[in-house]
Automatic annotation (TrEMBL), chains A, B, C, D:
Annotated GO biological process: aromatic amino acid family biosynthetic process
Protein's name in the database: Phospho-2-dehydro-3-deoxyheptonate aldolase
Any coiled-coil regions, as ranges: none
SUPFAM superfamilies for this protein: Aldolase
Domain called DAHP synthetase I/KDSA: residue spans: 87-329
Endpoints of the signal sequence: none
Its EC number(s): 2.5.1.54
Amino acid sequence: MILILKHQATDDQIDHVLRRVEAMGLKHHLSRGTHRTIVGIIGDEEQLREEPLKAIPGVAQVVPVLPPYKLASLDAHPEPSVIEISGVKVGGGHLGMIAGPCSVEDRDRMFRIAERVVASGANLFRGGAFKPRTSPYAFQGLGEDGLKLLREVGDKFGVPVVTEVTDPRLVELVAQYADMLQVGARNMQNFALLTEVGKSHRPVLLKRGMSATVTDLLMCAEYILSQGNANVVLCERGVKSFDPATRNLFDVAAVPLVHGLSHLPIIVDPSHATGRPDLIPACAMAGLAAGADGVHIEVHDCPEEAKSDGPQALLPDQYDELAAQMKSLAGLLGKTISPLAAK
Amino acid sequence: MILILKHQATDDQIDHVLRRVEAMGLKHHLSRGTHRTIVGIIGDEEQLREEPLKAIPGVAQVVPVLPPYKLASLDAHPEPSVIEISGVKVGGGHLGMIAGPCSVEDRDRMFRIAERVVASGANLFRGGAFKPRTSPYAFQGLGEDGLKLLREVGDKFGVPVVTEVTDPRLVELVAQYADMLQVGARNMQNFALLTEVGKSHRPVLLKRGMSATVTDLLMCAEYILSQGNANVVLCERGVKSFDPATRNLFDVAAVPLVHGLSHLPIIVDPSHATGRPDLIPACAMAGLAAGADGVHIEVHDCPEEAKSDGPQALLPDQYDELAAQMKSLAGLLGKTISPLAAK
Amino acid sequence: MILILKHQATDDQIDHVLRRVEAMGLKHHLSRGTHRTIVGIIGDEEQLREEPLKAIPGVAQVVPVLPPYKLASLDAHPEPSVIEISGVKVGGGHLGMIAGPCSVEDRDRMFRIAERVVASGANLFRGGAFKPRTSPYAFQGLGEDGLKLLREVGDKFGVPVVTEVTDPRLVELVAQYADMLQVGARNMQNFALLTEVGKSHRPVLLKRGMSATVTDLLMCAEYILSQGNANVVLCERGVKSFDPATRNLFDVAAVPLVHGLSHLPIIVDPSHATGRPDLIPACAMAGLAAGADGVHIEVHDCPEEAKSDGPQALLPDQYDELAAQMKSLAGLLGKTISPLAAK
Amino acid sequence: MILILKHQATDDQIDHVLRRVEAMGLKHHLSRGTHRTIVGIIGDEEQLREEPLKAIPGVAQVVPVLPPYKLASLDAHPEPSVIEISGVKVGGGHLGMIAGPCSVEDRDRMFRIAERVVASGANLFRGGAFKPRTSPYAFQGLGEDGLKLLREVGDKFGVPVVTEVTDPRLVELVAQYADMLQVGARNMQNFALLTEVGKSHRPVLLKRGMSATVTDLLMCAEYILSQGNANVVLCERGVKSFDPATRNLFDVAAVPLVHGLSHLPIIVDPSHATGRPDLIPACAMAGLAAGADGVHIEVHDCPEEAKSDGPQALLPDQYDELAAQMKSLAGLLGKTISPLAAK
């Protein structure tokens, strides 16, 4: 931690700063420059983060030298983590191909869509049973009935299923049915929820909040890891921007950025990132080319009848075509796609 | 609702669109322009919002003509709402002056700070017992002990107390102690929590998310109102921006914008909006001048020892000076500050 | 300047860094912490800024300790500057009240609007003769004829006139007619233009770019100051945001932020910041309450016939009402509005 | 154009709106809904854009149905344009591989770098002679001497050269030496400059402004096209964001977005978009996978000695490795890279 003192910091203030550092049991290193005095603090930065150093009179700026997360960092785990979701590997060269409708809807449709996306090469099936909707009047999901249906689909096709959990009281219930728990973008900083999924034994798909920095995202992963659940897959799904042309702004650079900071896998979700089927294939390919550990795509066989997010879904035929292109690209990049266990 | 069709929309597609509208029991109004065909849909827009109209082949753009919230709108309630928090009025010309430390800390400090801010004119006292911290290793608040302490302070000084609730499981507990429940910016779209506070009988202070539009904020208020709790006060506390000079960007225009759309009061929180004590007084004054129904300020008597957010707190003397300026401005603007009930 | 070295920086790399610093004729100060090594560089930070320090192998981060501008800083000039525009003072307690139509249009209209806004208390009159329009097919302004008309209006009412210059080749021409040169938001970083207005003897109104930080704005002022023209007034006019409800996001905190960093006056322009007449009065008042040195408002007597930006103009009656409120607030704040010289 | 009227619009106001539309020689189409009245205007939207329709009393919202650009749109030119820069093709399946240092510096270095990047497969060489620097005290480029040196390099290696022009007065001079003129991000809306490069016979590389929407970018291309110069290549180079981890936010979705709206080629510049050599290769690959018509990379053989932007440059060896990967990906995507003419 480095403290840059104010131009006008008095000798008394400098003394006070040094005494405060000593009182924390830490060493300091004073450097008087032409224009500013700087205090380097030597010791456990973790402990220092908790201290309101910037509020000490005379301090102009506090510059941390270490990232605020530990377990999620490459320092803690220099090799890429490979997360297993009921047999399907994600990370370290293994691609997670997640596909399925936004919401779990009627039974026949679920089976039809799952059959198609699994045939195209998806190795994880998604569908929402509890939907976080911006309107209280919108369809909120089928609840436990949706979970049961999802489980049935998973069992039938031998594909692990992913679904969102939105309430700390529901984590246990959802974990009974789903192979992987999704924490959505709007709940990325719902710390009560993060703590509960951290206590669960299920792998977690943690989506980046719409205005979360990559550091914020890794801190939220740290919440989960710190509760003992090491199986976290991150997901870039677009951030807020000034351009209304797309629903969000797809931040593809977050992929190599995460890989340079953390061992956790990161996949991309061009469906939510762009909200536009015409842009999804290009952004899916871009994500893979940037090194993503998987791609999350919403697929629906009749978007104009979808209970939610229909306008951003690909048709099964469109997904099939994209999946073929993604397989070619994966080959070029030396990545593999975990096959499903034989049923 | 207006549907703008694609340039290349075929007659068959146009027919399909019209039949879909009729199937919903609604009327349509077709208008063929030089370059585009437009379909006006006449009827309950609420119902239409649920339909994935944009996914209908041939549809280029869907333009809603009504806001997506109802109970929060001026149409539902043309006069400004006046919210009463245990006797203190906010809205419709009454200013809520909220002050207090970020976290509830030790007992003596709480009483010392409360005495000072109440003497300066604060009519609502704040303090966090459950803290949503971005690091799992940071101080998470005193929990129920903090609530008890806060209640004691409220009773002693006759000032209603406001505190944050971060978990739907804790709403009932917090409502036992606090006069007003705060939903923080990171939980603005935690719909499980909104639903629970909507079922509570306590007034709610709903803070705007860091990347929420004003429409998003009003939709979240709608969640609470739709559960039967009409006592919602909104709070502008800064949005994300590209300029690192301030913690967030204080969106003062949100104040008149909300007043033109909704009957709900809106206060400003320059402490979180700027994160800088040197900017707080100017932004507090700006908020009032823009018509805000109150001001939320963090005050601490020794910021360098604060358990959280110390660097953004004002000292009691600074708050006293600012409160005097705010009172003068309130006088000029014809606003009143509810006095505390005599103890 | 502080260099934070990479975790893995080798002794050879550290040596190379130190030799590079010495080769620049500067001293260094090495501090080896538990996790990172830090090099403080003592000497002229101006010179160091030019060096690609971050590209030196082993360097992780470069932390400057001084602002990158000099002449614009409070260090160079601790008292607020008072800029005189043909007798009207702006800054240091004097408010510049700029009003007028977006574009200079027909002669009668100009005289009618000027008469009204001067009667309401405006002490600077604006109107665009060269318009930077986002469409090549839009009205581009009357050019020199517009300048002549503006001069006539200024002379008739004894009010200094402000107009935009968009091209370095036109600075001399515009300076012949106008009392103050405006550099618009889109040209804030048009360095060729800044250099030319810096050579002019006319005061400059420098508008903040839509995605410029306050530091960026002050660096552009520095360009002008460094050419010898010390008469710069800054203008906050909104920055880009994710919320489409307003044209831009009015950053009122930029006012106290600039006052804490620079001696230059800063005014606010709620017309461009919000693009909505219904929000302009509240934001004008907010700007003044935050300490702005003036307010820039577009006024048109028939907005639906305006050649540009009609939808964001106030009517003369609306301006009159707002001006009265602004005068009351100015009184409360102890600010004065320079009267016009008697004709 | 669709006008959505206000809830409270009176019959007189509706009449006035209709008469105004008729006075413009256009037809209207009135549709009275349950909550709102809508007026469709049939006729030349170009003409309507110029009218301040939103300022007409009773009008709540104006919804355009056509894009504001014409020559740049796919309607005007349904096939992708192929731009030729002294023999090198960009667009329609041809990739422009631009590489070179940020600034033109000393002669030997220019030849060394050019030799390396051409050997790696670059088919356009870049280098700045006139630099738009944010500090007036920073290196501003070698000027005409730099242009001469660049021309020499181009002639020696048979590679077309690209360089930035920052001042309308310099367009003719720069066009004498360079094969392609670059308009930088900060000058994207410098309309005087756009007009001058539009009159030039040289192809133009138009970089997207840091807070420009894709529509803004296409409008600026329209400025150039409307002056008669059809040879415009667009460039995505990152937009402003709230995350300080990267210099800008690389908006890879802009590539398919532009391809769906315009016939103009678009390349990506991961050097400026990220500002971090460690992220450049992944983002370059992402851009190509998204369909970009080329990649712009800064290369320097000793970044720590670069006169500008050293920290974001790749070393020649790094570029060589990346170029090989980009060639493989181009092969997979069926794109070709124009070879240089034999010298």
